[in-house]
Design a protein that fits this description.
Layout: H1 4-11, H2 15-21, H3 37-51, H4 61-73, E1 84-90, E2 93-99, E3 104-106, E4 111-113, H5 117-124, H6 132-139, E5 146-154, E6 172-173, H7 177-188, E7 191-192, E8 198-201, E9 216-225, E10 231-232, H8 246-263, H9 267-270, E11 271-277, H10 279-285, E12 309-310, E13 313-314, E14 323-325, H11 339-350
Helix pairs in contact: 1-3, 5-6
């Protein structure tokens, strides 16, 4: 139940080690002072030691193509650009799925929905008999903070101050554990942080095929940002009407690039092009992100474990026996992993639904 700050201060003396570990809490949608965040410290360290940080050779879409082929090789069909409008329920069981163009698909054994609980109970099952407790809790489904991701095309690789960093999967650039905590507090107060921790990934260090010879690509991720910013902690950026406009996200990206130059002096001058994803962009692209939360729902203790996705209906079961939930909004939570799908698959393989 300890906080990450307590665990780091009790177990480590080096401020460098504390700063190295602290930003990973943001990748779990937590803060240094979140209840139970101390558990995440051990979890992250154990995971990295056991599995490292695997990288698909040739680009991230290679992973998607491999997953698609697993489905099609076993006789499955994938249909894109067909948003589901309703799950049709008769006599307490799902019997069909209707997409927005009006087509209906008959359900065989079960419906597995990779959506959040609010979408399921307030939208997809809007015509079904859903217990009031579930709809009320779905209305209060909690989302966390947002994220800005900046993709950079570089004319040359970054010049790391220590060559060993060329072999590190995703180092973070920041001054200290305390500065990391301060930046997240600023974001929780609705402010653009003045000096946030930056997660830096340079895939071309391990996979040169992703860029022309001599060039590089870099992904800079700034987590735990306000989805609807109200002010700038540094007093330098006019935020406006709590919306991530093109101007706002570019000015914030300028700040991040300037901070990058503090640690990697050659990077600002090596930028050939950039692409920025704001919380608002993420929300537009992925309904599971709500207002722009990349983790599909708050991961604070009151919204996790036995309370995820909803206290009245935790785990992957729903109020309809043959409808199951998977995805980041369910246990074990966020991240690109197949854990929730594996859990549901075991239930379907070992029981009659």
């Amino acid at each position: 139940m300890q906080t990450a700050r307590d665990v780091l201060n009790e177990r480590f003396r080096s401020p460098i080690v504390k700063a190295m570990i602290a930003p990973w809490l943001a990748h779990a949608g937590q803060t240094l002072d979140s209840a139970n965040s101390g558990f995440s410290v051990s979890l992250f360290l154990a995971t990295f030691i056991a599995a490292g940080m695997p990288l698909p050779h040739g680009g991230s879409d290679v992973l998607i193509k491999a997953l698609v082929q697993l489905v099609t090789d076993h006789g499955g069909t994938i249909q894109c650009d067909a948003p589901v409008d309703r799950i049709l329920v008769e006599r307490g069981r799902a019997v069909g799925v209707r997409v927005k163009d009006g087509d209906t698909y008959t359900v065989g054994r079960a419906v597995i929905a990779s959506v959040n609980a609010d979408q399921l109970y307030l939208k997809l099952l809007a015509d079904a008999d859903v217990p009031r407790a579930l709809t009320e809790q779905a209305k209060r489904y909690r989302y966390g903070l947002g994220c800005v991701q900046i993709q950079l095309a570089l004319s040359e690789p970054p010049h790391w101050p220590d060559n060993r960093l060329q072999h590190v999967g995703r180092p973070h650039l920041l001054r200290s554990m305390e500065d990391c905590a301060l930046a997240i507090t600023q974001a929780m107060n609705g402010q653009l942080p003045s000096e946030p921790a930056m997660s830096v990934d340079v895939p071309t260090q391990l996979d040169p095929s992703r860029a022309p010879h001599g060039g590089a690509i870099m992904c800079v991720q700034v987590l735990q940002l306000p989805c609807c910013p109200t002010a700038d902690a540094a007093g330098e950026i006019a935020v406006g009407n709590e919306t991530w406009t093109e101007d706002l996200k570019n000015r914030f990206a300028d700040r991040i690039v300037k901070l990058l130059g503090r640690y990697l002096p050659n990077v600002p001058g090596a930028i050939l092009g950039r692409h920025i994803i704001s919380p608002q962009d993420l929300a537009r692209y992925n309904p599971n992100s709500g207002p722009g939360d990349p983790y599909a729902g708050s991961l604070e203790l009151a919204h996790n474990y036995l309370f995820r996705p909803l206290p009245s209906q935790p785990s992957h079961q729903t109020c309809v026996p043959n409808i199951f939930l998977v995805g980041a909004g369910t246990w074990p939570g966020a991240g690109v992993n197949g854990s929730s799908g594996y859990i549901v698959a075991q239930q379907l393989l070992t029981s009659a639904v």
